[in-house]
Specification:
Helix 6 runs antiparallel to helix 7 and helix 9 packs across helix 10. The protein folds into 3 domains: 192 residues, no CATH class; 99 residues, no CATH class; 130 residues, Ribonuclease H-like superfamily/Ribonuclease H (Nucleotidyltransferase, domain 5, 2-Layer Sandwich), CATH 3.30.420. The protein has a 6-stranded antiparallel sheet, sandwiched between helices. A 5-stranded mixed sheet has the order 18-17-16-19-20. It contains 13 helices and 20 strands. Strand 2 and strand 3 form a beta hairpin. It is an alpha+beta fold. The protein starts with a strand and ends with a helix.
């Protein structure tokens, strides 16, 4: 038996897409950190899927291209819809100031509904949401378990209805004819807080242009908030997120007592963490810098802190940047990949890719664990990671939007040697050491899933 007490109630400020506070919110939260693993919950009881941001961007881009309705909604007190499972014996100390009929001093309450804060509450709610959406007629995607879809009949307006969920926040995509029926079906099962046309979701300001059939994402309010939080709102602006003349290394980590004392009160990891959300949300232009600075988060030095401030200075001058997706043309999934070759002293390459549907929907820039012996090898590894992402994206989109994204998927590379390796083993004597896990791209080129095409570096910028 685990007793979870609740702290005194307090108000949390809720904001809008412009960073303005709109209302107060308070809720009763259980102290789930007191729960004991194996006694009060199992390890497989705590994972709850949420929609990947790349899935959200892809669904919104296609909705803009098809000129479908995009509505956002929130389910009020979502976790309370799910009841505790048999054997979930969790007890709650009554909050201060609460008196209940028949409750004697020293007695506790047994939870019958899932409460915010419990380890298993998130997963229990997801199971309730999944089962409910299945009853409405939607199918859960096998490739993103927080994306649900339904193929509509001509009588319903044709096309595809999709719902992407992040806990209790949902985005609904449907044609103008079917959208009222979808909202009515949800209202008959949940109490909704309707947000109207999608405009603010997961900290991103979203704007639809029905004439151009585009949708734009902005995190200007979020960036302005973190600039103020870390007192960088009046910092001198710069034009690049990273100084190209400064090479960061482990030798610059804090080693002396003076440096360690200087870095003691610098919120390096916290500031880097909030920048990561901007990087994965809309600001792909800082992704490389964020991943580079993350290597030194264990023991950053003054030079690393200066580089972090440089990124804040860049965001201060570019916080109005928006990510635009969609367009009049038919949706085409296209990829671009690259690597910095052997420019690093340790010969560990930085592999990067980006995939677009009228704009960037998925991107990555990561340092690889292996040492490369040639530029071709580094580019081939980058091509392999891009191929894996292309295959996942195609599986996701092909199930939700059948036959809309035709094969092969074009992935551009700027290295002729890597392209040749993806087609056959013509450089065997110089590339026979490459791990077999990077050779699977050749199989997908042969079966027509991927088309690896040359594109000069200057054309990729």
């Amino acid at each position: 038996m685990q007793i979870s007490s609740a702290p005194d109630s307090f108000y949390n400020l809720k904001g809008d897409e412009h960073g303005n506070f709109t209302r107060y919110r308070t809720r009763l939260v259980a102290q789930g950190y007191k729960q004991v693993k194996g006694l009060d919950y199992n390890f497989d009881d705590i994972f709850a899927p949420v929609a990947r941001l790349k899935s959200v961007r892809a669904m919104c881009a296609i909705a803009a291209i098809e000129d479908d309705e995009l509505v956002q909604t929130n389910i009020k007190s979502a976790f309370l819809y799910r009841r505790m499972e048999p054997g979930d014996n969790v007890y709650l100390v009554p909050p201060k100031g609460i008196t209940l009929p028949g409750l004697k001093p020293g007695q506790v309450l047994k939870l019958r509904a899932c409460l915010y804060g419990l380890k298993q509450a998130g997963r229990r709610w997801y199971q309730k949401l999944r089962d409910t959406l299945r009853q409405i007629g939607l199918t859960c995607s096998q490739f993103d378990h927080a994306v649900f879809y339904q193929q509509l009949s001509p009588a319903e307006g044709s096309g595809t209805t999709t719902i992407f969920c992040h806990v209790d926040d949902m985005g609904l995509k449907a044609n103008k004819k079917y959208m009222p029926h979808l909202i009515a079906a949800l209202k008959s099962r949940f109490k909704l807080s309707e947000g109207g046309q999608i405009h603010y979701l997961l900290g991103m300001h979203i704007t639809c242009d029905h004439e151009k059939r585009t949708i734009s994402f902005s995190q200007s309010a979020y960036i302005n908030c973190i600039l103020t939080r870390y007192r960088f709102d009046e910092i001198r602006m710069v034009t690049t997120p990273m100084d190209p003349n400064v090479a960061l290394s482990k030798e610059q980590c804090a080693t002396s007592e003076r440096q360690q004392e200087e870095m003691k009160n610098k919120p390096y990891r916290e500031a880097l963490g909030v920048l990561m959300y901007a990087s994965v949300g809309t600001r792909l232009d800082i992704t490389y810098t964020v991943s580079t600075l993350a290597k030194f988060s264990q023991n950053p030095g003054p030079t690393h802190w200066t580089a972090l401030k440089c990124m804040f200075a860049y965001l201060c001058g570019t916080q109005h940047y928006t990510l635009i997706l969609g367009g009049i043309s038919s949706p085409i999934l296209t990829g671009y990949c690259d690597s910095d070759g052997m420019s690093n002293p340790d010969h560990h390459p930085i592999a990067a890719y980006i995939f677009t549907i009228g704009g960037a929907i998925s991107w990555s820039s990561k340092r690889q664990d292996i040492v490369c012996l040639s530029t071709t090898e580094a580019k081939y590894i980058a091509l392999t990671h891009a191929a894996k992402e292309a295959i996942w994206l195609h599986h996701l989109l092909d199930k939700v939007f059948p036959k809309r994204f035709k094969l092969p998927i074009t992935v551009y590379s700027n290295n002729q040697g890597a392209i040749a390796l993806s087609k056959d083993d013509r450089f065997h004597t110089r590339t026979k050491h490459i791990d077999i896990r990077f050779q699977f791209v050749r199989q997908y080129v042969e079966d027509g899933t991927l088309s690896i095409t040359y594109l000069p570096t200057d054309s990729m910028r």
